[in-house]
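User: Fold both of these, please.

Assistant: Here is the first one.
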Amino acid sequence: MKPFFSKNSTVLFYGDSITDVGRNREDFYGLGNGYPVKAASIYQTLFPEQKVTFLNRGISGDTTSQLLQRYDADVKALKPDYLSILIGVNDTWRRYDSDRLTTAEQFEANYLQLLAQVRKDLPHCRVILMEPWLLSSDPNKVPWHVDFDPKQQIVNRLSAKGDYYLKTTDLFEAEEKMGAAEADISADGVHPTGFGHGVIAMGWLRMLGII
């Protein structure tokens, strides 16, 4: 185990409900109940002398276009030293619950614009990208793969534009090989269970060489 983040640095988690997980919006430092708080708690327990600040700006339901809309307030203004981004599944979900189609081309353009703004405004910031997923534990969402899979492939392809990349599906497949079912990771195929959030947090820390 070794420290990864610079002393007194700020780490920002940015995304949708998978990152949000019930965080208190009135608490500037509220981390919610998901993988961000689990990863932050482990890091701060191991390396309290680093005095790293962890922030969560996940908002339930957000798409790539909504991340762009609130970028100035929730990323640029906070000047993070490290930015962890998980986004993508709602660009598919809104097609099926609200008839709001985001094409693969628009999804890629949004994602590229977000990364370009970060590189322009925060050139020192190191970017951690996370692969979005859609598991098959909810049969009703299986048809969504026709829309989702191309978007997931885009994120995999754009991963080279980040400094670090967490391929979450590899984490989940490893757990399944050890006996976990997809429903143990996410009952609805999208939102992780407590166990699922733990898998993500541990994978995130391992990917950065922290544990």
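And the second sequence with its predicted structure:
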Amino acid sequence: MVKHIVLFKFNDFSSEVEKKEKLNEIKDALLNLLDKVEALNSIEIGINENPNEQFDLSLTSTHDSMDKLKEYATHPDHVQVSKDLIRPILASRSCVDYSL
């Protein structure tokens, strides 16, 4: 079993309302991948509530193997969410993958 943890920092938004709406849109789109991507065992998305921290959103998912993680990462539905919702506003990203 592999755990995949990603932290996202997004570009500044024009308002807190816009930021909250966009983060919730990303959260919903990522959570919907659970029903579409067989290589995805579980997924949890967290929106940061601590203004003293630099990252805006976290993703934690589990996969049966590193090959299944790669399958998830390259799945067309995952690629679409990344391309349409995440990449256009992404400032930085950090990731760690480890075996359970």
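The chain has a mean pLDDT of 97.
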